[in-house]
Amino acid sequence: MQLMAESKEQLYKQNIQRSLQELYTRMSAMLETIPDDIDEDKLTPTQRTVVDNISAIEEEWIPDPDQRRQLSLIQWEDDE
Length: 80
Known about the structure:
mainly alpha, 3 helices
């Protein structure tokens, strides 16, 4: 029975790693719709939705606000 539990744990870890990689890839693709030098106040509604979606994902995966600000894929000039 222990072997089965270890096998399930390994499968679980592999699925989490795959899911995180897919999530990161999706977030990166979403970010490609936003120019690097855009001002936060000049985002289109679609770009604002992208920023909000990425922020929500990061908030779920990085609960600490300070760490999230440092690690975020979205960096505004004022944040640096």
